[in-house]
Design goal:
Blueprint: E1 14-15, H1 26-38, H2 46-64, E2 71-74, H3 77-87, E3 95-99, H4 108-113, E4 118-122, H5 130-136, E5 142-148, H6 160-170, E6 173-177, E7 196-200, E8 212-216, H7 262-278, H8 280-300, E9 304-305, E10 318-321, H9 327-336, E11 339-340, E12 342-344, E13 347-350, H10 358-372
Parallel strand pairs: 1-11, 3-4, 3-5, 5-6, 6-7
Antiparallel strand pairs: 2-8, 7-8, 9-10, 10-13, 12-13
């Protein structure tokens, strides 16, 4: 696939901001426009949406190396986290372990909805590895460990195999917000004990807002309580007869509680085709190559690198500061030169994807170098 044509509309900018949101591929935009035109006289028939959902499950399963039955559709990452929260059989006196400086999407649900469950926290950065500190906080009453696979600020990537094995040996649920890695970093969830993995489409899955992937381990389902379900959690043959109510769907689809947002679904289906046609291993290779070029150049400027240096815990995110320089002014300078990045905690966060070019990396480094010398 000629990936340069997928984002030809970004040729006049350098888009290094996928950790925030992604521009839409040309083919994705066109398909979504076609569906909008077909909606002129009302919704499309259910057979169309069933086909899209089937393709979505197969595409999500291929990306994560799991079965289609373990894939559910969600509208955002928080919806997937709430599905986990309400279906895990928490009891008064249990505790949950999480990171106190992770993105709010993976903190607020646990604090707001589990008043009788103790929250134990550690920070992403520390002397010991994050995994060691998370595991050290557990005890016999720990019901779940909740993590961001990739931290939104530092880009630290958690060793899910290590945590998964630890949780499996102790009967602890492992819940993962995967939005900052899914679509950019390769993962095989069939070989890792993760109970829930949730990732919205807006970022590395190439957009749009309003869709996402929920993975629920098939071996986890029997131990969950029936919760976070609605009328679309049931097996409907048609929408003519509604009584008696049909049985509950098998697999992760039971968490698809209500009607589906059609356009985001169509967009995500096309994006999954793009990602899987290239291959997540190849995407991973390209993303890490661009990251290494950026890292080498920034280290040559003696920049403060906030992201992990070791690729063992690295991701597509590279965050840095220039010593004795105002990061907001640098962000403004990048923006004026048509470089899209993020300003987070007074640092610059760069997040290129597979279609970005090495020449773009050099242009960014040239701009940063010029600013550093000013």
């Amino acid at each position: 696939m000629d990936t340069s044509m997928l984002f030809s509309h970004t040729k006049n900018i350098i888009y290094f901001n996928h950790a925030s949101s992604s521009p839409l591929a040309t083919t994705t935009r066109e398909l979504m426009k076609q569906v909008v035109d077909r909606l002129e006289f009302g919704d499309l028939d259910w057979e169309f949406w069933k086909k899209e959902l089937g393709e979505f499950r197969r595409g999500g399963a291929a990306l994560l190396s799991v079965t289609p039955e373990e894939i559910g559709f969600i509208t955002n990452t928080t919806t997937g986290l709430l599905a986990a929260l309400y279906s895990i059989p928490f009891e008064s006196g249990d505790n949950v372990v999480l990171t106190e400086d992770s993105f709010p999407a993976n903190r607020v649900p646990w604090f707001a909805n589990l008043p009788d469950v103790e929250k134990r926290q550690t920070q992403v950065k520390g002397i010991e590895t994050l995994e060691e500190r998370l595991m050290a906080l557990t005890d016999a009453r720990t019901k779940a460990i909740v993590v961001d696979w990739v931290d939104f600020f530092t880009g630290y990537r958690v060793d899910l195999k290590l945590l998964g094995d630890f949780c499996m040996d102790r009967g602890i649920f492992l819940v993962v917000d995967g939005i900052q890695g899914c679509g950019a970093v390769s993962i095989d969830l069939s070989k890792i004990k993760v109970d829930f993995f949730t990732a919205a489409s807006a970022k590395w899955l190439l957009g749009p807002v309003g869709a996402g992937i929920l993975y629920v381990n098939k071996n986890t389902l029997p131990g969950l309580k029936p919760a976070f379900m609605g009328w679309m959690s049931l097996v409907w043959d048609d929408f003519n007869i509604f009584d008696p109510l049909p049985p509950l769907k098998d697999g992760a689809a039971r968490f698809e509680a209500g009607s589906y947002p059609g356009l985001p679904l169509v967009g995500l289906v096309e994006n999954l085709k793009i990602l899987n046609s290239i291959g997540i291993e190849e995407i991973n290779r390209k993303v890490f190559k661009l990251r290494k070029l950026l890292l080498d150049g920034l280290q040559g400027l003696d920049a403060e690198i906030i992201s992990p240096l070791d690729e063992t815990h690295a991701s597509g995110i590279l965050t840095f500061r220039l010593r004795d320089k105002d990061s907001r002014l640098l962000w403004d300078t990048l923006d004026k030169n048509n470089v899209k990045s993020s300003l987070r905690k007074n640092a610059i966060r760069l997040s290129p994807h597979f279609y970005n070019a090495e020449a773009e990396v050099q242009k960014v480094l040239d701009i940063v170098t010029g600013f550093a010398k000013s």
